[in-house]
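Repro:
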Amino acid sequence: MNEINIAEADIADVAEGIRKLGPDVRGFGTVDPAWTRPPAVLVIDCVLSLNRRYDAFVVPRLNAFMEKHSNIQKIADLADLMDSFQSPNAFLQQELNYNHKERAYTLRSVVEFLCSIVKEVPTITEEEAFRQWATQAKPEEYQKLNIKGFGIAGFQYLRMLFGADTTKPDVHIIRYVSEILDRKVSDIEALHLLEASSGLLGLSVRDVDTYIWDIRARPQQYASATNVVRLDPDIASAFPNEKAVNDALRSVLKERNMEE
């Protein structure tokens, strides 16, 4: 992977964009239940979430799998269960209600990779082995895996699930950073910019990533839980930014108070 040069001005602009998200960003990633599931379920989460709607598609399948297979906790347990089926896709169809041969291959390949990590460090627990790998791995290492359908976003999400303080440059993160800079950025640019800007603000990168994903992937839930309102197009064109809206509403409020 070619070296990416990140401009200090871009880092500052992205940091300012993150700062405007508000104080709720800090600590946001710690409340997500995704981080507390057993390793076997985490890897299913990672692979199933590739290009699928998380709440509507992934979560129901994860919950059903955990209810049926509460004993499947470790990666080795998942590997053994998958081996009991005629093929990876047969496992995917029967246990996860998903018919997708390529995704089944991806899942099996990632499971094999994680099993190899455990074998390399037999003196520590599985969780410790995965955390050690996740915190020490570099984003560009996804290329060495050469797993079809498992790019940098999936690789980074796997690192996050196992404890790395980083970001996954999925469509939501890339769009967010691109909008701030008013230009299209690549996945690796978005990754480095979010890491650098979060560090500049003293924030956990995973917290920032999780917060951005939440407000972008769950806009209706986010809006209902905050005081966000949607302006009609003609109003929005007259008040192009946050300051203009607030100044106008303060003027209205002042006039109302004077009338009272």
